[in-house]
Amino acid sequence: MSAFDELMAFQRETEALAQVEGRLHWDQETMMPRGSALQRGEELAALSAVLHARRVDPRVGEWLDRAEAPDEAGAAQLRLIRRSHERATRVPARLASEMARVTSLSQGIWAEARAKDDFAAFAPTLSDVVKLTRELADCLADGRDPYDALLDEYEPGATGESLSQMFGALRPRLVALRDRVMGSDRRPEALEGTFAEAGQLALSRELAEVFGYDFHRGRIDKAVHPFSSGSGADVRITMRTAADDPFNCFYSTIHEVGHAAYEQGIDDAYHLSPLGQGVSMGVHESQSRIYENQLGRSRAFTGFLFERMRDTFGEMSVTDVDAFFACVNRVTPGYIRTESDEVQYNLHILMRFDLERDLVSGKLAVADLEEAWNARFEQDFGRKVDRASNGCLQDVHWSLGLFGYFPTYTLGNVYAGCLHKALREAEPELDAALARGDTSPATGWLHRNLQRFGGLRAPRETVRHACGFEPSEEPLLEYLEQKFGAIYGV
């Protein structure tokens, strides 16, 4: 075997073990008995130690020195393995194992604290996570800003400074649009009533199929926080239900199907290799957001959803398709990021971006986080936070040590705006298909131009290759201003 072949065989086993680790996390959030948390923490710590040992194995470095790429895909494989190896060798095995153990336990503690609206019960554990995260960032920084080192795990090539500039360009127009919308005399009606869980689950499954989810290689389960897990031949998603809010179920399903479709759509030849997964969280989020928003909340598709909901639940409080479209896209005051409308969603992310940078740098102490969150939320959204579960306990990410992850949500929205612009130019009859519940012109275009390539190209290059132009925030802002300007007459 050549050095390249030996390296790829070794890497395939590493990728398979990483999939097992992901399955343990999936089980923890869906089916694991509550009393199993301590043992699961030990299991994840042990597996993390095994994976870390493989990633820093000296043979990887030797193979990389001798390997010759047979083609473009092989060169990309070597680039990604080298990046992973270099990052892993900077992290002590003790730290990798302890991070896995503590974040596994932290997740359960967060969930209980959130249920009780008790930030104080979570703060000591979060302090441990932040301490380990700072240590990890220092190991990875190599002279850079420690936050950039964390961000690089989720969005290679991005920096806190470059994102600050992009977010600075987004904020004024988002705030101005929100103010115009909130000041409008138009008030789309809310959907009222109770919607049986059985009907929600059945329609959720149908929507997953409509958007191309392959149930032969996946499944849907319920979880506190919807997510997608896995790649290749085993990609699972979760959603949640609320009797008085079926949109929460339906659009979280469509959102997670966007993630899953990316993973299921990657070229089979890349499975269990560095190319066999989404290239970054920003690009990943572009898929979930374009599925959920530009497609799922479009006037054309909401007409189809309106009829399917009437078929499932009977007559509803909203009685015509135009009112239903406005209802789906209502802009309302609220606390929860995952339930936020498109106009305000990114403002939630911009707030978290600033707070977590301060946590990592030490400018903000965990003990002061709740107060800082509440003050910033009131400043940005004009409302006082009423309880911790509507405030700094609403998201699971920090309990898992996912610092540097939040900004990729807005970056994903920016990428989705670019992809939507290119998609509309390529598929001028798209709305006619969406109105029939046929998403294939859109999902097919995304598969051909982005999803099948997996990690072949760098994140921005992936989007640029699909769109044919350099990514920027302008297409997203134009889409939002046109869509919500029309709904609200502003």
From TrEMBL:
Its cofactor is Zn(2+). Belongs to the peptidase M32 family. Zn(2+) binds at H255, H259, E285. The lineage of its organism: Bacteria, Pseudomonadati, Pseudomonadota, Alphaproteobacteria, Rhodobacterales. Broad specificity carboxypetidase that releases amino acids sequentially from the C-terminus, including neutral, aromatic, polar and basic residues. It comes from the Bacteria. Keywords: Carboxypeptidase, Hydrolase, Metal-binding, Metalloprotease, Protease, Zinc. The active site is at E256 (proton donor/acceptor). Binds 1 zinc ion per subunit. One of its GO terms (molecular function) is metal ion binding. The keyword Hydrolase applies. Gene3D superfamilies: 1.10.1370.30. It comes from Tranquillimonas alkanivorans. Its EC number is 3.4.17.19. This is Metal-dependent carboxypeptidase. It catalyses: Release of a C-terminal amino acid with broad specificity, except for -Pro. It is an enzyme of class 3 (hydrolase).
